Amino acid sequence: MNQEICVYILTHNRPDVILRSLNSVREQDYCNLKIIVSDNSDNDETTELLKDITRKDRRVCYEKRGIECSSSNAHFNYILKTNSFEYFMLFHDDDEMLPSMVSTLYEYLFTHKNLCAVACNAYFNVRGKNTKKKAFISQNIDTFENGEEIIKRYAVGRIAPFPSFMYRKSKVFGISMDWNKGGKYCDCSFIVTIANSGGVAYLPQCCMYYFISPNQDSQHHEFVQYLSLIKYLATLVEDKGLLLNMRLYNIYNYLRDLQLKTKRIPYRKEVLFLFYKYSFTNFFPKYILRLLNLYMR
């Protein structure tokens, strides 16, 4: 049964990229599709840009948002609260779907009635160039029946990109994204919450391009906000080693950002000892290479 699916494209002041994302959704091979461009821009550039498309393609609807969607977090929660479609997605305005993304996700979610959401793998587009680098490496469908399993996956960086999720309204209605549970990383606590409500699946197929650029907010680490995520996750798991790895990740990425901003990384004996003792094969060698200016990622 091909139920109507809605893809919300959330956009803010990016008329230069929205057409690529929108056209990739319009080219999906799933026939019963509704597309809503949800725009919380502070200007009318996107409004003017999409006039012809909304007139010619009846599947596309444009919604200009007001104060109720003033932040990205509020925008997301507004869609969650007002959405009327049983199957829906919240897609980013700078990412790109491959033609079978919607049908692939829908087929799996529709046939697994217990799941709250399903996500797929993604190729990275780095600085405007498509690559074959994947968000995570897996040959199997991974199903997570509770939030702790998601946290374990998140702690080692093997996560599905947030815009790759398709949700089932009847399972996620009433759940919101809480800024106090991770700041800009609260998408993780959100997925953890919905996993506890019925389960989440990750498909190994790459069905989209996830765009990475230096100007993206996601590419800049926020130490305090990530720390708030760790504090929240610590209430859900008892694995101290897992939480320690996340704390080391937080420190490492804070130092990485300092290097990128100042072109030098501060040397601290305490940090060196911490990485050496608890993460000899991971953060320790990277930190040493940064001190030598040989590692910039």
TrEMBL record:
Which superkingdom?
A: Bacteria
Q: Return the Gene3D superfamilies for the record.
A: Spore Coat Polysaccharide Biosynthesis Protein SpsA, Chain A
Sorted alphabetically, which InterPro entries does this protein's record hold?
A: Glyco_trans_2-like (IPR001173), Nucleotide-diphossugar_trans (IPR029044)
What terms describe the molecular function in GO for this protein? hexosyltransferase activity
Signal peptide region: none
Q: Which residues form the Glycosyltransferase 2-like domain?
A: 6-169
Q: What protein name is recorded for this chain?
A: Glycosyltransferase 2-like domain-containing protein
